[in-house]
Amino acid sequence: MDSKVAKSLADKLGVTSPKIVRKASELNRLCDVRCTSGSLSNLGLNETSRTVMCIELAATSLHHHVDRKEAIRLAGVSKKIYISSYKTLESMLDLQQVHGMRDLAVQFGCIGAVDLARDILSRYKSDYITRSGSDNDIDFSKPMFTLAALYTVCRHQKVKVDKTKMVATAGVKRSTFDQTCTDLEKYATQLIGDNKKTGKGKQKYWLDDLEKSFEEEEESPIKKKKTETTSDESGATDDYEEWKRKILEGASAATRKK
Description:
The chain is an all-alpha fold. It has helices at residues 3-12, 18-34, 37-42, 47-61, 68-75, 79-92, 101-107, 114-132, 143-157, 163-170, 174-196, 200-219, 221-230, 236-257. α4 (47-61) packs across α6 (79-92) and α9 runs antiparallel to α10 (163-170).
C-alpha cells in the first residue's frame, strides 16, 4: 500500500510516532512474504484492513495504545472478523506476546497477589462469557487484564506497586486501565470478603489452635509435675485424657454444624 495512505491511516488512529509507522510498514512487507493473497482473501482482508491491523500490531509491540473501535471502522470489516484476522496475523508474524501472571508479579514485586489475581480474573472472564455467550470479542490474554487484576489485589492488600509502569506495560491509556480495575473491583471485594468470613478454613484453624493449646499445656513444667504427681492416683491420667477427648470431639461436632 502507498506509504502516504498508510501514514494517513496511522494518523487517524492517533499513531504519530515515526518508529511505529516504520514498524507497521515492515510488518506489511512481511505479510507479503508470509501470507499469500489467497490466505489474505480467506481471512476476509483487503490491503486497507491489513494495513490497519499491521499498524495496531506495531503499536502494541511498542506499548502504544490504539483505539480498537476506530481501527475496526477504518478496516471496514466486522468486529468479529477483525479480531479473528488480527489474531491470525499476529500468529503469522510471530508477534504473540506472552505475559504470565507470575512473571509480571515478579517484575512488579507483588508475587503475593498472584493467587487472588488469578481467581479475580477467572471470575471476571466467567461472568463475561455468561453474559455475552462468547469471549471471541475480547482478548483476556492481553497484559492489561493480568496487570489490572494484580493492581486491584495490591490495592486491597495495601502493597505499593508502580502503577505508571504497569499502565505503560499494559500498553493502554490510563483511563482504560482504571476502568478495567473498576470492573474487577467487585470480584476482589467478593473474594477478599469471603476470605475474611469465618468459614470452614477458619473453623479448622480454631480447632487446630485448641489442640495446640492442650499440647502446650501438657509440655509445660507445671503440667508435667502435676501429671507425675497424680499419675500414681487411680485413673487420674486416664480421666484427663478422656476429658480432653470429649472437649475436642464436641468442638469438632460444633464446627461441622456451622
